[in-house]
Design goal:
- There is one protein chain.
- It contains 11 helices and 9 strands.
- The protein is α/β, with parallel strands linked by helices and about 350 residues long.
- It has 2 domains: about 260 residues, Spore Coat Polysaccharide Biosynthesis Protein SpsA, Chain A (Alpha-Beta Complex); about 55 residues, no CATH class.
- The longest helix is centred in the C-terminal third of the chain and has 19 residues.
- The chain is globular and about 55 Å long.
- The chain binds uridine-5'-diphosphate-glucose and manganese (II) ion.
- The site of uridine-5'-diphosphate-glucose has 14 residues, from helix 1 and helix 11.
- Uridine-5'-diphosphate-glucose binds next to helix 1 and helix 11.
């Protein structure tokens, strides 16, 4: 039901196919379908679509914690039964997968008139610009037809890759000592990254928690934002902070749900062994209550970002800024389709309704 921002809606969670489940024609258990409606009350911002998405992310983390999330607008549908498989080929790729925040598909529409009078195809954007971006850090997130890596929604950074030998001058690799050995920068960077420290970092699942980059100034006062320095120290700040983060920091970022917080550090998703239904249902209701996000980082640093008419662009940029890459996936048969606005009035109404949360 639409919400005007004035009334009240209560939490609804309906699990279709129930606790017994149901089988498909070949006897396999069908996935459950869960309908979720969050709580809204006067005096509490619901943040429209971005707020709805954040509530869904938390609720699903508590109920199943699947590591990947497909986001589709309510006026879009799946048009290619291989769509999810296409995305998973990237997200589960042994080399590339762990660094990907999302796989974005182009938006395609039904009902476009012969001459595409209302420019629904958006050829320049979807078939030129987005392909170009795919060659850099990846396409922007366009709000629908996108499969996310759940970890990227939580403000974590992508895991670091093994380092290749570094060039210390224009022509020689770092093992060349003729002109560069004794460089304090390099030796500092190397001596800091000792094996036990590296081991501790790995033990943390390679996740960088909430680190603010410190800019280092060199003698001349220039900002020496050299990658080597940053990379040499990578993982240290957060290791020092992580014991403190465990309680207050996590709550400040994610809100006061220990079940949700636990789910965020399970890198491969899933629920802890022995999780009880009654606990998760209670917690699922808690995380979609209207005051849950107060004094947290939801919508500011994590999840779908608030405060813009196009929450999608900001959300994708946040991930790219943290170093994640994205992928543009364009199978021959469109993966998803939406219904095209067929006159300017419909387009304007849809636009203003969507932005005001109707
Ligand atoms: O209060 C709201 C308003 C919208 N929606 C959802 O947001 C979607 C997008 O809204 P729509 O009115 O369809 O806007 P469009 O302009 O068609 O959407 C494009 O532009 C939006 C803003 O950039 C993106 O969020 C969309 O994914 C993208 O398809 C809808 O389908 C709903 O699923 C909500 O959940 N709550
Ligand atoms: Mn739409």
């Amino acid at each position: 039901m639409a919400h005007t921002g004035l009334g009240t809606t209560l939490v609804t969670i309906q699990v279709y196919l129930g606790s017994q489940g149901a089988l498909d024609v070949v006897g396999k258990l069908l996935p459950k379908l869960v309908y979720v409606s969050r709580e809204k009350r006067p005096g509490y911002q619901h943040h429209k679509k971005a707020g709805a998405m954040n509530a869904l992310v938390r609720c699903s983390a508590v109920l199943t914690n699947a590591p990947f999330i497909l986001n589709l607008d309510c006026d879009h549908y799946i048009n290619n039964s291989n769509a999810i498989r296409e995305a998973m080929c990237f997200l589960m790729d042994p080399q590339l997968g762990k660094k990907l925040c999302y796989v974005q598909f182009p938006q395609r529409f039904d009902g476009i008139d012969l001459n595409d009078r209302y420019a629904n195809r958006n050829i320049v954007f979807f078939d030129i610009n987005m392909k170009g971006l795919d060659g850099i850090q990846g396409p922007v997130y366009v709000g629908t037809g996108c499969v996310f890596n759940r970890q990227a929604l939580y403000g974590y950074k992508p895991p670091m890759s093994e380092k290749l030998p570094k060039l210390t001058c224009d022509c020689w690799p770092s093992w060349c000592c003729c002109c560069c050995c004794g460089s304090s920068r390099m030796s500092k960077s190397k001596s800091k990254k000792t094996a036990p420290e590296e081991g501790r970092r790995r033990a943390m699942g390679g996740l960088s928690l909430f680190r603010k980059k410190k800019k280092k100034k060199n003698k001349k006062g220039y900002v020496a934002g050299l990658e080597e320095i940053e990379e040499g120290l990578e993982g240290y700040d957060e290791l020092e902070k992580s014991p403190l983060m465990s309680q207050k920091g996590f709550e400040k970022r994610f809100g006061r749900s220990p079940v949700f917080i636990t789910s965020t550090i399970m890198e491969d998703g899933g629920l802890p062994e022995g999780t009880k239904h009654i606990v998760v249902i209670k917690e699922a209701i808690h995380v979609i209550s209207c005051s849950y996000e107060e004094k947290t980082e939801w919508g500011k640093e994590i999840g779908w970002i608030y405060g813009s008419v196009t929450e999608d662009i900001l959300t994708g940029f946040k991930m790219h800024c943290r170093g994640w890459k994205s992928v543009y996936c364009t199978p021959r048969r469109p993966a998803f389709k939406g219904s095209a606005p067929i006159n300017p009035r419909i387009d304007c109404t849809r636009f203003s309704d969507g932005r005001s949360g109707l």
